[in-house]
Design a protein that fits this description.
- This protein is mainly alpha-helical.
- It has one helix and no strands.
- The protein is rod-shaped, with a radius of gyration of 22 Å.
- The relative contact order is 0.07.
Length: about 50
Amino acid sequence: MFNQISLFIMLLTPVFAYVVGAIIFSFLECLRNDSILTERDNITINRNGL
């Protein structure tokens, strides 16, 4: 039989995995959106001939 600490760790492991995955996904999306915004700014500048 598991003691209470082992059971607590087993119950919280999926929660921690979900939170870490969400943080990594959010970080990667922020990096991707920043690069897209930079590309859009360059396209706008090139279209205006500046």
